[in-house]
Write a sequence for this structure.
């Protein structure tokens, strides 16, 4: 069985995605600040899970959201990155934080 | 947000192994017991949200498991599982017993 089999997802592995540039003042979010507004490529679909943004406030039975592993170039994430130009960072991000990249 | 520190200047990371105190293990165990109830009394997401809600000064002054204690206490009060007065009364009782032991 491959990852994400049977999951109705908006994106598929290889798709270019843009992380939403939202900065809500309150709440619990698993999308780190440093990756918002960056563009990466879907590496895999990790599955679908209850939304931590709801779980964090005691709502345990909300709809499940698709979780992706997204791969970013370190050089794009950190303008002053001094490591190898092929270095990547992979972050797991829920679908509602992703938009198709232009 | 204060807790979301990825990429900020932070200095070297201390990678030395350190002892876990008995009270820290107890907090870890209490969280698991609360999480594994069906339905759970608390989720790790709530624990994390409670830690993130600590004021920055307090967040910085507390150790890892002290943050857990602060968060879990606030969430138990928020969910009406315990009242702050109950927590404080229990703390006073333990403190008095310890003082008696030490005397």
């Amino acid at each position: 069985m491959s990852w994400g089999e049977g999951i109705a997802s908006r994106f598929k592995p290889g798709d270019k995605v843009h992380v939403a540039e939202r900065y809500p003042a309150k709440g619990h979010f698993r999308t780190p600040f440093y990756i918002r507004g960056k563009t990466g490529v879907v590496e895999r679909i990790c599955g679908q899970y209850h939304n931590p943004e709801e779980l964090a406030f005691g709502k345990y039975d909300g709809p499940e959201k698709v979780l992706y592993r997204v791969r970013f170039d370190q050089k794009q994430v950190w303008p002053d990155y001094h490591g190898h130009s092929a270095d990547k960072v992979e972050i797991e991000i829920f679908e509602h934080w992703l938009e198709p990249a232009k | 947000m204060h807790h979301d520190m990825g990429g900020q200047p932070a200095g070297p990371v201390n990678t030395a192994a350190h002892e876990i105190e008995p009270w820290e293990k107890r907090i870890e165990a209490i969280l698991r017991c609360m999480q594994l109830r069906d339905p759970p009394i608390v989720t790790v997401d709530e624990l994390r949200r409670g830690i993130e809600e600590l004021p920055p000064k307090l967040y910085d002054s507390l150790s890892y498991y002290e943050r857990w204690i602060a968060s879990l206490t606030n969430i138990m009060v928020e969910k009406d599982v315990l009242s702050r007065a109950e927590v404080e009364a229990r703390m006073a009782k333990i403190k008095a017993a310890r003082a008696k032991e030490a005397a």
